[in-house]
Amino acid sequence: MQTLGSLSLGSRTKRLSDLLMQQVDAIYQQQGIALNPSYFPLFTLINNEGPVSVTQAAQRLSVSHPAISKMTQKMIKEGLLHKQPHPSDQRVTVVAFTEKSLKISQQAQPIWQQIQWQLEQIMQQQQHPLLAAIDEFEQLLAQQSLTERVVTQLPAPQDAITIEPWQTEYKHDFTELNLAWLNQYFNGELTAIDQQALYHPEQYYLASGGYIFFARQGHHIVGTLALRLHDQQTMEISKMAVQPNQQGKGIGRQLMLTAINKAQQLAMTQVFLETNSALTRAMALYQHLGFQVVPHPQGQSSYPRADRYMTLALNTSSKD
Question: Count H helices, E strands: the chain?
């Protein structure tokens, strides 16, 4: 969980909530209190303010109406609450304590005081005040929800990235994207192999059992990657290029995963690639996917720009 950082916030707070619920439930059982800890907010609200309607409870506790309705039904079934007309509006029904709940409230007061005292002792030992941090976090979410924050920063559905196989009309995009990549990072270096691959991709990749994939966004090709058959068990991943204004959005990762999955489907045992250590973002992606830097099998690369040879062993047991 800790390695996920803020992405695990919901799971970690739920885990903490579950832990506290379990321990409070154990206290209740030892003290003979027949109360589900999850009822505490509603139970306390009625205890402090008297009978309330489901709508009022939902508003006061900032909980959905269906959730409060479901909880009240459970508490009624357990004999903790009963329904009665609102004292000033007979059209409205409220829920109120039964004698059982009044007795539990009296028994639980010293227990709640001790639980509160112990929790405050734990929080006083912390470097960062937990409740204040939660209050601040909730206020920031109230100003703008996580949903709004995330969705406004993501492409609209019509701009979603799709990975597509080779189509003849994409040949120009394959060439231009890779030439732009060479110009951006390696001053336009174009070897004899590059020329063959970029200007004759059908013969260099497809005719020999390889594949070329494209990342499409709307009507535009924004990325590409080639997969070339090296031998009966190995394929080479090469010519990955993404438009500069689209880099850092996970397009390269989608292309890489597509190529790796295809190699697995073809029962390959390994894929390899050649790259340059100065391409830190690409290196991080390859390493995250499990590629390992190993000595070049030929001693050195055919590409002057390549100083890293990386391989990935494939698990083909689940191939289609």
Answer: 12, 9
Locate all alpha helices (DSSP H) within the chain, ordered by sequence.
9-31, 40-49, 54-61, 65-77, 99-124, 130-143, 146-151, 171-186, 192-199, 201, 251-265, 280-288
The CA distance from 222 to 243, in Å, is 5
- Intra-chain end-to-end CA distance of the chain, in Å: 32
Instruction: Give pLDDT tens digits for 155-189.
Output: 555 567 899 999 999 999 999 999 999 998 998 88
CA neighbor of 179 nearest in space, from 171, 167, 168, 190? 190
Phi, psi (degrees; rounded to nearest 5) at 213: -115, 150
As a whole number of angstroms, the longest Cα–Cα distance in the chain is: 90
CA-CA distance, 97 to 49, in Å (whole number)? Answer: 11
Q: Which amino acid is at 283?
A: M
Q: Take residue 218 and report the two structure tokens written for it.
A: 């709307």
CA 133 centroid distance within chain: 23
Instruction: Return the structure tokens found at 204.
Output: 């260099």
For 260, the token pair is 């790796």
Look up residue 52 and give its DSSP letter.
B
Chain-centre distance for alpha carbon 115: 35
Residue whose pair of structure tokens reads 């004899």 in the numeric block: 192
Per-residue pLDDT tens digits for 289-311: 999 999 999 988 989 999 999 99
- Bridge-based pairing of strands 81-86 and 89-97 is antiparallel
What is the token pair recorded at 206?
């497809």
Angle at 270 between CA 175 and CA 262, to 5 degrees: 55
